[in-house]
Write a structure and sequence with these properties.
By secondary structure, this protein is mainly α. The chain is built from eight helices and no strands. It has helices at residues 2-15, 26-36, 42-58, 62-83, 90-107, 113-133, 141-168, 171-194.
């Protein structure tokens, strides 16, 4: 319950637009856009929550290492996108992240933590680049980046929380839920790749 309250408070603070006595509210404008950007696309939301669910499934050090890897790599790739540096197949990489992470969850794979970090880090390149490249021209880069990193971390936390809660219900409940949820996510990934979503 405390996590939900914290998330709601941060979201409210992130969306608030305080008045400035002078023009140039680029920092606030940047933070708002950065915060809401990952939350307005199903592809980003699904992948971010999947990273949290994957971390919860692995447990132990993966609970923080897997999401932290994603956020760190995404920050670097976001800076690349803001600078105009191009990388190929960004949209395909994002769609594949939803498909692959959905399949990983459906199959309940449990690779070593280093492999899991490498997998999510690879996909974080595409998500981060997309966020950075889509920054509004009049936004503050730092504030925009902080916004999308915070939103991503909150989505990861939601996935971790959901995964931990489901695991507490026992394998009889968590296994079929993982298969159904992961399968639905993988289908969404196929839809994104095919251009249906």
């Amino acid at each position: 319950m405390k996590l939900k309250t914290l998330a709601a408070t941060i979201a409210a603070l992130g969306s608030a637009s305080p008045a400035f006595a002078h023009s140039g509210g680029g920092a606030t404008h940047g933070f708002d856009h950065g915060f809401w950007h990952p939350l307005t696309g199903a592809d980003h939301v699904l992948a971010m929550v999947a990273v949290g669910l994957f971390a919860a499934h692995l447990g132990g050090r993966a609970l923080w290492l897997v999401p932290a890897t994603f956020v760190s790599v995404m920050a670097a790739a976001g800076a690349m996108g803001m600078s105009g540096l191009e990388i190929p197949f960004v949209e395909t990489g994002i769609a594949l992240s939803v498909l692959v992470l959905g399949l990983v969850l459906m199959a309940r794979l449990a690779p070593p933590v280093g492999v899991a970090m490498g997998l999510v880090g690879f996909f974080a390149i595409f998500h981060g680049h997309a966020h950075g490249a889509e920054m509004p021209a009049d936004a503050s880069g730092l504030s925009y980046g902080l916004g999308f990193l915070l939103a991503t971390a909150l989505l990861h936390a939601a996935g971790v929380g959901l995964g931990v809660a489901v695991a507490k219900a026992g394998n009889a409940v968590s296994a079929p839920l993982a298969r159904i949820g992961g399968g639905a996510m993988a289908l969404a990934g196929v839809g994104l790749l095919a251009g249906w979503l």
